[in-house]
Every structure is written in structure tokens, then in C-alpha cells.
Amino acid sequence: MAKAPSKFTDVTVLKYKKGEQIIKQGDYGISIYIILNGYVEVFRESDGANIVLGTLGPGDIFGEMIFLTRGVEVRSASARALQDSEIEVWHPDDLAKKYEEIAPVLKTMINQVLRRLLRMHKLLDKMAPKIAAQRDATEGQKTSKESRRRYY
Predict the structure, then answer these.
(1) How far apart (Å, rounded) are the C-alpha atoms in residues 139 and 121?
(2) How far is residue 109's CA from residue 27's CA, in Å, rounded to a whole number?
(3) pTM score of the predicted model
(4) Strand blocks (E) in 6-129
(5) Rounded average pLDDT over 113-122
(6) Which of 58, 82, 144, 151 has the fewest other C-beta atoms within 10 Å?
(7) How far, in Å, CA of 37 to CA of 25, rounded?
(8) Which residue has the higher pLDDT, 151 or 43?
(9) Cα 63 from Cα 121, distance rounded (Å)
């Protein structure tokens, strides 16, 4: 994918190998990432299980929530390269100037959507053990049913 040069002054391009972790849930960080090429999996860790939130590709951005919460929260999810990837890293200072120029109604909308997303993440964390238990129970039932099955 051809990409126009970045309009930001403090930009770095990093390369990640397949499987390498890019950001970790629970860490503090300020950088925002845009995928130039390759694919990245974004996931949450909850009760020892990884809950995949999405797969991102060229042109997609991640790490933006830390910018939108103004760095008062830790990273809400982790991200790892699903294949060798090139990722542009933005320092939020340039972006903060542009963000201040947007209409107040848009900021209100962004903040509302962000609060909803953070609530969803907390709900996912609460539901993860129940989902895992249900999955284990379902798999156990299949196994016991299959062991009783008779073929003629």
C-alpha cells in the first residue's frame, strides 16, 4: 500500500517480526501506531485467556485510546504482529495540537464513545471466566456424549 509521507514531525518506523509483541496491556505508554504493512492482532488478557478484539492491517491505527484518555489510563489491550510488519509510531504532541482544533461537539462524541469502549472492556474482563467455564463445560459434554455414542 502506497502511503503519503507523514504530516507529523516526530515519527519513527519500526519493524516487528511475526509473533513479536508491540504493546502490552497494563503498561503506560503514549505512542500511537499506524500499520504501514503487515497485520496486527489486538487482544485483552483476562484470567489467563487472550480475548481477541480484532485483526488490523495496513492503514489501521492502534494505541489511540491512551491518547484520548490523555495518558491517565494504562494500555487497555495488547498487540502483536501476526506477520512481519512495518509500523509508524507517532508521538502524541503533534496530534494533540490538531485534536485541540476540532469542534467541541466532536470531542464530546469521541469522549462518549471512549467511555463506552472502556466499559465494554471491563465487562469483557468480568465475562471472560464465565465464557471460559461454559466453553470447558460444552467441550466436556461433547466428549462424554461421544464416548457414549454407539455406531452400528
Answers:
(1) 26
(2) 26
(3) 0.67
(4) 11-16, 21-23, 32-37, 40-46, 49-56, 61-62, 78-81, 85-90
(5) 84
(6) 151
(7) 23
(8) 43
(9) 15
